[in-house]
Amino acid sequence: MTIDGVDSGADRNAPDVSFDELLAMTPDSMRDVFPQTHWQLGKLWALDLRVEPVEVADLLWMFDLPLWQLNGERFKVTPNQVAATPMNFRPHYERVMDADLDFPIHLVAYRGRLVVLDGVHRLLKAHFHRRRWIAAKIATAAQLQECTPS
Known about the structure:
two-stranded antiparallel sheet, 4-stranded mixed beta sheet, 21% strand, alpha+beta, 7 helices
């Protein structure tokens, strides 16, 4: 099983940078959207969170953000660009189509709205399939703090 098509060869070759460097290169459009917390994916997945349905429409605002990389450069591609011209962004489109919708996305409640931390490719696939709901696990800011590197 692949989660968000991780095995599909999607563009994941950006060089490693420190968390501070990552924050410095984050576009202004995203700075106020995400908590400034250094969290690890494995620890996020390990949290004991209940799966609940979330309306896909409540998360579509995120499709305008440059969440994905292109040719090793972070913050270059929006999910809406992939949706509009999938063959221009083939690795991301393939990752979307390979994504497993049985695996819940992970969200955090931040500044009065839900933000996707993991699962935007799955969210886009759910949108493509015209699903009204997507399975999600929602963390609080305090729970996200539990996911910081040791």
